[in-house]
Amino acid sequence: MESWSYPPAYDENYLPPADSRHWFPRRETMPAGERERAIIERLRQVCGYAYEHAPFYRRKWDAAGFHPSQLASLEDFEQKVPVVTKQDLREAQNACPPFGDYLCVPDHEVFHVHGTSGTTGRPTAFAVGRGDWRAMANAHARIMWGMGMRPGDMICVAAIFSLYLGSWGALAGAERLGAKAFPFGAGAPGMSVRCAQWLNLMKPQGFYGTPSYALHLADVARDEGLNPRDFGLKYLFFSGEPGASVPGVRDRIEELYGARVFDSGSMAEMTPWMSVAGSAQTSGMLCWQDIVYTEVCDPQTMRRVPYGSRGTPVYTHLERTSQPMIRLLSGDLTLWTDEPAPCGRTYPRLPNGIFGRIDDMFTIRGENIYPSEIDAALNQLAHYGGEHRIVITREAAMDELLLRVEPDEATHRAGAAAADAFRAEVARKLQAVLGIRTRVEIVAPGSIPRTDFKARRVIDDRAAFRAMNAELDRARR
């Protein structure tokens, strides 16, 4: 296996032949069973390293009766190693600030500090060592190569440059790939207009952001008299939220920009987060198992579910040395398969990407619904204006749902009859897709705030639900 060592040691000057589909042909296409045998050995190394250097893991594993020397199979790993939760990490950092007692390198070796925003509680700090930063850059460059990007391509990173690791990870990958890094950023007032202007000027080949921002940016561009197809983009790769693997959303973005869309992204804690990502020939997300070992597990037992089944991803670093995550529970929901991939890579695959967080699911009259399903349904409608809000309430025995939706400008200008027809179309579509009746409110285009970052479309608000319900009743009198 190419460059298979722990800690990782990559040749910073290495590039595959330009016509190669794979960065590391052996690692990416080897028989899955052979790779798994190598992963077992690597897991013994990673767990032994963490047991020696991190009181957090030593304490947790001693309590569970586990020692790294016991690992003889992937089944041993699954059965004997307890999962780690985000709450575990917060408690560790609260007890041992700022990085927790799972930091495995001396403080002076920390190269980058990132983290969560902490808007709903204590922020979680990510400490990334210099060696880990380079390993992350190499991993991301390799995966971006698999998407089709090449040295010399210009790659626009249109995501917030802050504590958020997504933008920095995409930038590091672009730099290691030998691309022209174009770190445009996002978030400041008026920046979307400038972004559209710069894209039209520079004509980059690649673009990174969130799916919702790409849709918003297309609207802004058209308001400025620009056609997003004229930007000349070939590759749009996304993380941060579901969407890029959802047919309705993916197809809408590809149609707007005339470019390929790729889904990627696990968790910030698991950077290199592109370790689940699609390739030029394979849709959905491949689990690049030799970078981050991914299991899809039953949320109750934390045991792997069979291929073809749904479960929650559980991730383990195979290269990180600074804050290695070992069986970190994602809390997301996905489905995995092991059918042959068109690109020839022999990794498991998430054909529909990440559906969303299990916590985001809500139940309407007995039906389990994810916000991404509503996103997909609306994006398949010709007159959808690009934004909506889902308002739910839990006052009754089961959740109730109302949907506030923007039509396109032409439908809005056509008057009340067109709005009523669109309302009925939305209701029919959601009943067909979700199996439930939904009350729909049509609002003016542009009346729902857009975002330069992750879209937050679900409102669990009893007061908002009652007000919106009353408005719909008044409109029908």
How far apart lie the N and C ends? Answer: 71 Å
Give the total of beta strands. 21
Strand order of the largest sheet: 4-3-5-6-7
- Secondary-structure-based class equals alpha/beta
Shape from CA axes?
globular
Global mean pLDDT: 91
Rg, Å, rounded? 23 Å
Strand content: 15-25%
Total DSSP helices: 14
Q: Sheet bearing the most strands, described?
A: 5 strands, parallel
Question: Helical percent range?
Answer: 25-40%
Note poorly predicted spans: none
Walk me through this protein's architecture.
- The protein is α/β, with parallel strands linked by helices.
- It is 35% helix and 19% strand.
- It is built from 14 helices and 21 strands.
- The protein has helices spanning 25-29, 32-53, 55-64, 74-80, 86-95, 130-147, 165-177, 191-202, 211-223, 247-257, 371-379, 409-413, 416-434, 462-476; strands spanning 110-115, 125-129, 154-157, 180-182, 206-209, 235-238, 260-263, 276-277, 285-287, 292-297, 310-317, 328-329, 332-335, 349-350, 354-357, 362-364, 367-369, 384-393, 400-407, 439-442, 458-460.
- Strands 4-3-5-6-7 form a five-stranded parallel sheet, with helices on both faces. Strands 10, 11, 12, 13 and 15 form a five-stranded antiparallel sheet that branches. The chain has a four-stranded mixed sheet with strand order 20-19-18-21, with helices on both faces.
- Helix 9 links the parallel strand 5 and strand 6 (235-238).
- Helix 9 (211-223) runs parallel beside helix 10 (247-257) and helix 11 crosses helix 13.
- The termini are far apart.
